[in-house]
């Protein structure tokens, strides 16, 4: 057995696909309509469709995704350039800052409220 990836539920698959393509620069490998797989292995799934698949029906309530209990982590060789490109288009949690373990990261919310972290590669990156 091997772990493959988490799949965040999203409310609007087209909006989230566009966000991850245009803001983070991820390339789509497969687009199945309600499920999108990016070349990094990251994937998103339209929430109502996945609810029907997993539980046999979509929630009768409007579920709120991104409940501050999951952090989507990405790495970029130039964290400052990524910040400059992404920050004007997102709700920031915080700008680039050095963490206790020495890594520089910034965090923001995606369109569904999932927390996203962009960090320099662990064990390297700029100082």
Secondary-structure blueprint of this entry?
Elements: E1 9-10, H1 13-22, E2 28-31, E3 35-38, E4 43-46, H2 47-55, E5 71-75, H3 79-86, E6 91-98, E7 104-109, E8 115-119
Parallel strand pairs: 1-4, 5-8
Antiparallel strand pairs: 2-3, 3-4, 6-7, 7-8
Could you please describe the fold and organization of this structure?
With 127 residues, the chain is α/β, with parallel strands linked by helices. The chain folds into 2 domains: 1-65, 2,3-Dihydroxybiphenyl 1,2-Dioxygenase, domain 1, CATH 3.10.180; 68-127, 2,3-Dihydroxybiphenyl 1,2-Dioxygenase, domain 1. The protein has 3 helices and 8 strands. It has helices spanning 13-22, 47-55, 79-86, and strands spanning 9-10, 28-31, 35-38, 43-46, 71-75, 91-98, 104-109, 115-119. A 4-stranded mixed beta sheet has the order 1-4-3-2. Strand 7 and strand 8 (115-119) form a beta hairpin. The longest helix has 10 residues, at 13-22. The termini are far apart.
């Amino acid at each position: 057995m091997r772990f493959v990836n988490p799949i965040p539920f999203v409310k609007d698959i087209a909006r989230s696909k566009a966000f991850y393509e245009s803001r983070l620069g991820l390339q789509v490998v497969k687009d199945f309509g309600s499920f999108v797989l990016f070349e990094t292995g990251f994937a998103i799934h339209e929430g109502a469709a996945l609810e029907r698949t997993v539980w046999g029906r979509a929630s009768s309530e409007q579920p709120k995704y991104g409940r501050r209990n999951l952090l989507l982590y990405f790495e970029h060789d130039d964290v400052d350039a990524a910040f400059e490109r992404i920050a004007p288009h997102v709700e920031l949690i915080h700008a680039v800052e050095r963490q206790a373990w020495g890594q520089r990261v910034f965090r923001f919310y995606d369109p569904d409220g999932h927390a996203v972290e962009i960090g320099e590669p662990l064990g390297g990156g700029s100082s």
